[in-house]
Write a structure and sequence with these properties.
Number of helices: 7
């Protein structure tokens, strides 16, 4: 018996020694260049069988325990390339016996990932559909106690951008994937203070999962390779997820179960935001949230807060994947409304608070303003409350609000019914004092059809004076009604649209303007433009400064692409006046065209009329008057004008033009006589040429209440050469008074917009010689109780600029006297 035992021991020892010799021989064999080349080819072949294109320049190390691979390259079907250089791997040999692949050390000096992807727009991120793969078993357990990649380069060849990061951490996954541990830190090599850290500890046996993610990065520098961000900001993000293994499994595999929800917490800080397209976001923002994520993907947010120096938001909600939002509570504050002017062209001050609540098919909300100012106008007691409840497939809503402006108190009430097919406004009433605006209507969402009826009643405009300048003298009454029928989807081609309005004005006064009565009827087929289909205005007893119109009629109606119109009226403007015109007009976008077929009337007892039709065009960068020829009294006036961004051409001519028309807006001054002139201007970016010749055939100037008048004749000539104008003037009166002047005047000329005026900064030179009786001059000027007499003779020289002029010369007065009585 003992002999057999001893024999077995000897055999076992010999076998063990043999195995050791074979293992050592195998290890020594693996160190040969031939074996390493075969191993490299075997790895490449197996990768090709699995659809991977892999290249390895060289394999070194003490195989199979220590591996050192040079220039490892993987090529994928989408054209991306993954490279690792000087890859060193250390494997725990005894773990392989237990079917565990343990990497005790994994290090790479440098890696590169080259891909081609156009930058995503910010809106594209909202439509990303990320699907997590289903979890499968691994062929063996995997663990890496130390992973280090000193530098990993990410290169986007489509955008020619590059970023570099380093990786280090630990990773452990068993074969059944029931135990997962990861602690990985990623730091940017290019951008300071940019890193992320992921911690995950999941264990099926203890039915627990704990995960934390910390991120800190600069949006523009860190994300510019893959996405276009509308802002520039430093982000700090901390998040945690915890729950049972079964809850996470049901969520990832999209298998709803009755497991406990996953607890999620987020803390996000966006520091020093710079958003050029939305300046109101230029601030530091902080957000915290805590919510439960159910396996059926329902979300129960127990706390959500967003804070900055402008905004303070707190809320909670419950979102169901099957029913949508089931519960919502929020409190929203804008702490400083003046910050809004960086985004919206309105000056506001004060603060705003809004609350909302939704539960069991009922909703309520309120908006309150504190210390509100709009364009320096104090708005008091500004509140808005809304209630809504769902009945069958419709929401029944009611809104109440009020605000105060100076002594006015406005009350708002509205009742609506909303559903998928329509929004029906049963009653909308805005009231202050006796003034009311009432709107009723229907909006059909199915075919984008809008029907509204509104009624305006303002019997006492005086109550609105506090909203206007103190001297506005607003008074009178306005009433009217409007009807709108519009198919909004076809608004641009004017199909199915009809807007009609009727307004009545009675004894309306505003500053020095008065309307005793006016009636306005308006009809259009497009609610988005001013293109009218029909306008009819009748007014009587209008007073505008010195113009009194006893009756006025304006009519226009669309007829194809043009709109015929007529305008007529009678009144008094320093004397009896009447006028009539008819023609047509058209508009496309900002391009206006007016054709005047007939224009005639009488002013200051002188008749005027057009000799033939003429047209006027107004477009962005273009203004023209074509072939205007007017008969004025016994004279005529001709004008052709075309002014564009490239050049300006103006030609004018008048024969025996009555001068009294020039004083129509000055009732105390009377001007008699005629003048003739002709002129031309041709201006461009390269040169400017022009002339103007005027003859004062006879001019008599007098003031109301004075018998004496000033009479004169003369000529004025002007010649323009580039930016210099030469002026020659000779004017003489009835008692040997005369003025002779010559001048060289620098001109400022601009084409877009057109501008022609003497320069205020450049030097001017002029000579003026005049002679005449003082009383003829000062009696006309009317200096009240003061009287002068004598003979004035002067010869003056004007120099320097208009801003700082210099006038030198001699002034002689003979037989002069002065009296004050």
């Amino acid at each position: 018996m003992n002999k057999h035992v001893g024999l077995l021991v000897k055999v076992f020892i010999i076998l063990k020694f043999f195995i050791f010799i074979v293992f050592v021989g195998g290890v020594i064999f693996l160190q040969t260049s031939w074996s390493k080349e075969k191993i490299k080819n075997f790895i490449v072949k197996k990768a090709e069988e699995n659809g991977l294109d892999i290249e390895i320049s060289n394999i070194e190390g003490i195989l199979p325990l220590k591996w050192s691979l040079s220039n490892v390259t993987l090529r994928f079907n989408d054209g991306s390339i993954f490279k690792l250089d000087q890859l060193k791997i250390r494997i725990a040999i005894f773990s392989l016996i237990k079917n565990k692949f343990v990497i005790s050390y994994f290090s790479a000096r440098e890696g590169t990932y080259i891909f081609s992807s156009p930058k995503l727009d910010w809106n594209d991120l909202q439509n990303l559909d990320i699907k997590l793969p289903k979890i499968n078993n691994l062929p063996f357990s995997l663990a890496s106690r130390h992973v280090l990649v000193r530098k990993m380069n990410f290169i986007n060849s489509a955008t020619n951008t590059e970023h570099a990061a380093s990786f280090r951490g630990d990773l452990s996954i068993n074969q059944q994937m029931t135990k997962i541990y990861a602690d990985i830190k990623i730091s940017s090599v290019d951008v300071s203070k940019t890193f992320s850290r992921l911690f995950l500890n999941a264990n099926k046996e203890t039915n627990s999962v704990l995960s934390r993610l910390d991120l800190e990065f600069h949006s523009t520098q860190s994300l510019s390779a893959v996405v276009v961000t509308p802002f520039d900001v430093d982000f700090k993000i901390k998040s945690s997820l915890s729950g049972s293994w079964n809850s996470f499994k049901g969520l990832i595999e999209n298998c709803p179960s009755e497991q406990e929800p996953i607890k999620v917490a987020f803390a996000i800080s966006a520091l020093d935001v710079k958003a050029p397209s939305l300046p109101i976001l230029n601030d530091s923002w902080h957000s915290k949230s805590a919510f439960l994520l159910h396996c059926n993907k329902d979300i129960e947010c127990r706390k959500l807060s967003i804070k900055s120096s402008v905004l303070d938001f707190n809320g909670s909600f419950f979102f169901s994947t099957s029913k949508g939002v089931e519960r919502l509570v929020s409190d929203f504050k804008i702490l400083d409304l003046s910050r809004l002017k960086t985004t919206y062209p309105i000056n506001m001050e004060g603060s705003l608070q809004a609350t909302t609540c939704y539960k069991d098919q009922k909703a309520s909300g309120s908006i309150t303003f504190q210390d509100l100012k709009i364009e320096n106008q104090v708005i008091k007691n500004t509140k808005l409350n809304a209630l809504a409840s769902k009945k069958e497939d419709s929401w029944v809503c009611s809104v109440k609000g009020n605000l105060g402006i100076d002594s006015l108190e406005f009350d708002l009430k509205a009742n609506m019914i909303c559903n998928k097919e329509a929004v029906k406004v049963r009653d909308f009433l805005l009231k202050t004092g006796d003034a009311t605006l009432n709107v009723q209507g229907l909006f059909l969402t199915e075919n984008d059809k809008l029907e509204l009826d509104s009624f305006l009643y303002m019997p006492n405009l005086r109550i609105f004076r506090s909203l206007l300048p103190r001297d506005s003298n607003l008074d009178g009454a306005i009433g009217g009604e409007f009807h709108i029928t519009s198919e909004l989807g076809s608004a641009r081609d004017s199909i199915g649209n009809d807007v009609r309005g009727h307004l009545i004005f009675k004894n309306v006064r505003y500053f020095d303007k008065l309307i005793s009565f006016a009636s306005l009827d308006y009809q259009t087929d497009n609610i988005f433009t001013f293109a009218s289909k029909k306008v009819d205005i009748e007014a009587s007893n209008l007073l505008i400064k010195n113009l009194f119109i006893s009756d006025l009629n304006v009519r226009t109606e669309q007829n194809g692409k043009t709109n015929p119109f007529s305008l007529s009226g009678h009144g008094i403007w320093k004397d009896k006046v009447n006028f009539f015109s008819e023609g047509s007009w058209s508009r496309k976008d900002d391009n206006w065209a007016i054709a005047l077929n007939n224009l005639h009337g009488e002013i200051l007892r002188k008749k005027f009329s057009n000799a033939h039709p003429f047209s006027i065009e107004i477009q962005p960068g273009l203004f023209s008057i074509n072939s205007m020829l007017m008969n004025t009294g016994e004279g005529l006036l001709m004008l052709d004008t075309k002014i564009s961004k490239e050049n300006a051409k103006i030609s004018c001519k008048a024969e025996h033009l009555p001068l009294d028309i020039l004083t129509i807006s000055h009732p105390g001054v009377f001007l008699e006589g005629t003048t003739s002139f002709d002129g031309m201007l041709d201006a461009s970016k390269d040169k400017n040429k022009g002339y103007f010749n005027l003859t004062l055939e006879q001019i008599d100037v007098s003031q109301q209440g004075k018998e004496d008048n000033f009479q004169a004749k003369g000529t004025i000539q002007a010649h323009l050469d580039n930016d210099k104008m030469q002026l020659f003037a000779h004017i003489y009166g009835k008692e040997q008074q005369f003025v002779d002047a010559t001048a060289t005047i620098p001109m400022d000329i601009r084409l877009d917009p057109f501008f022609l005026c003497p320069s205020k900064k450049r030097e001017v030179s002029a000579q003026i010689t005049c002679e005449g009786a003082l009383e003829s001059i000062f009696d006309f000027i009317n200096i009240g109780s003061q009287k002068t007499s004598g003979l004035l003779t002067s010869h003056l020289f004007l120099s320097r600029s208009a801003e700082v002029p210099s006038l030198q010369g001699d002034i002689n007065i003979q037989n002069g006297s002065y009296e004050n009585y």
